[in-house]
Amino acid sequence: MTDIRDTKKQILDLAESLLLDRGYNGFSYKDIAAALGIKTASIHYHYPRKTDLGVSIIERAIRRFEKWGLSLEHRNLDSSRKLDEFCSLFKSFASRQQVCLGGSLQTDFKTLPEEMQQKSCEFASVLLQWLEVLLRDGRNTGAFRFPGEARDEAVLIISSLQGSIQMDRVTSRSSFRSAVRQITLSVSP
To answer: Per residue in 128-163, is it b (16+ CB within 10 Å) or e — as a string?
Structure first.
């Protein structure tokens, strides 16, 4: 007999994968139920509304990212290595031919329920703030050099990573590598 927590996690995992593949509007509870061999009522038990499911996906992503950021601090990596690790987070999506969560949510933003819009903004803010601090600290220590404000550079980097993942889906799959190369060059002292 499947543990109820396992079912909840399976629902959340599959919904996240579908969201990254198809976007929020590209899947339904029927898709999840069919893939997991359960009834839609089982999904509604854990997530009464699709909005609840979407918010849970975003909240989990925020927790994962914050935990990931703390793990970098414990490893005492320099700024350049932290930027490499940040780019590697996006590489995993490119290698699976999926859009990253931020990119997917931002594409669907105007059609998302208000609660998900708020959580999407929070998620984007967490990523952007983390990268801004990294870039500012890296510039202060001489690890990075770039014109303008750290926040502007953070926006440019995240936009490049998200966009190159999407480009990889429709091109020769070298767009992501090219973007990472350019990011590294653009901040190198």
So the answer is: bebbbebbbebbeeebbebeeebeebbeebbebbbe
Tens of pLDDT, residue by residue over 50-100, are 999 999 999 999 999 999 999 999 998 999 999 999 999 999 998 888 899
What is the band of 2 on the pLDDT scale with cuts at 50, 70, 90?
A: low
CATH assignment of 4-187, among 1.10.357.10, 3.60.15.10, 1.20.1250.20, 1.25.60.10:
1.10.357.10
In angstroms, the CA 115 to CA 135 distance is 30
Provide the phi-psi class of 173: left if phi over 0, else alpha when psi is between -120 and 50, else beta: left
Are 104 and 24 a contacting pair, CB within 8 Å?
A: yes
Q: Containing H/E element for 122?
A: helix 114-141
Instruction: Compute the distance between CA of residue 125 and CA of residue 120 in angstroms, rounded to an integer.
Output: 8
pTM above threshold 0.90? yes
Q: What is the C-alpha separation between 177 and 174, in angstroms, rounded?
A: 5
Instruction: Return mean pLDDT, the chain.
Output: 94
Q: Tokens for 150, please give them.
A: 């750290």
**How far, rounded to the nearest angstrom, does the alpha carbon of residue 133 sit from its chain's CA centroid?**
18
